Model the fold of this input.
Amino acid sequence: MIILIEPESDIPIYLQITNQIIEGIARGLIRPGDSLPSVRSFAADLGVNMHTVNKSYHQLELKGIIRIVPKSGAIITNLNDFNESSFERIKEEYKPLIAESLVLGMSEKQIQALVSSIINAFHQKQS
Done:
């Protein structure tokens, strides 16, 4: 999987890394049980500070997406453990985006179509 960093983006680099890893998992490019590169080697490959990659890995761990095993690295967890806590966390993350969409004039139907198009994009094979 290729991670592309956009230094000029308003999105912090650690969040770009986090989001792209999550998208890679959603597309099936990274699977449960796969290991991520060590913080040091990933930082070197991306040309970023080690603390940036470390912050990304800790965000992924807080979300339950990876498990950090001392001396073994970061491993993608079995992602079939969706629970009420995950539901509530994601719901809280969606609220401001949906509110912004409504404020900007999107209809409920447009929001649902947008969500469906994003889901469909993840189900398509990457070329």
